[in-house]
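User: Protein folding is very new to me. Would you mind checking the protein record under this note? It all follows right here:
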Amino acid sequence: MILSMTGYGKASAEFQGKKITAEVKSLNSKALDLSTRVAPIYREKEMEVRAMITQSLERGKVEFSLWIEQLEQVDACPINGELAAAYYRQMLDISNKYDIPEPDDYWHTIIRMPDVLSRNEMSQELSEDEWIVARGVVQQSIDQLIAFRRQEGEALQHKFEEKLDNIATLLASIEPYEKLRVEKIRQRIIEGLAAIPDAQYDKNRLEQEMIYYIEKLDINEEKQRLANHLQYFRKTMEEGHGQGKKLGFIAQEMGREINTTGSKSNLAEMQNIVVKMKDELEQIKEQVLNVM
């Protein structure tokens, strides 16, 4: 069963008055493109988190976040009064020196300056017990994303099967037109010669040339190769995840055979069928980009 690269997972757990939450989401990408946002208290474990994600997800554009929320009443975040006063003096000096109007609300500006508020979270140390809980939350979010990918992969596989069946049906529908096409080509050549006044030609040589010309337009090899590619695509899907690039290459080969069939058709009905096959294949190509 194939896996999709699109997925989402989220998990939470409580530990000593705080809620630990991990969220991970992924989209399609040629390789693993990982970005992480981790709460400062877990920063020392960021490399371990990245290793967990890399080993489990393999490919995709992955965004991961790990944060905490306080559930119990905590002390107010302390304000660095000396630093706030220093910022205030600097702002007054700059206003006077450069004749810049003073702000209406100094406090609103100062409180947003670096390090005026001392985050308790920054000064906390990570205990081993808390990390065990947080690590479990990370793993749960990854497991949820993988389950999501599996579910999406199953839907993709059903879609591919439908499109492959459609192409196989269209391919079979070409056959009745092949004999008609040969006869029309033969008739067109004979009528063209008949339209030339006093045209002299060797009928045996004409027959040989028509056979050679018609053989060049024969599409049996293309039909056989396309049928083989359809079967190979199905077989590859059953090999499990990690086949996305391979499926993309098979789809390219399918397109090559369909295009050659179209260029050899020389019959409107056959070319219409080829256009329909191309449409089905394009839908496969669009979706195969999401396959692991």
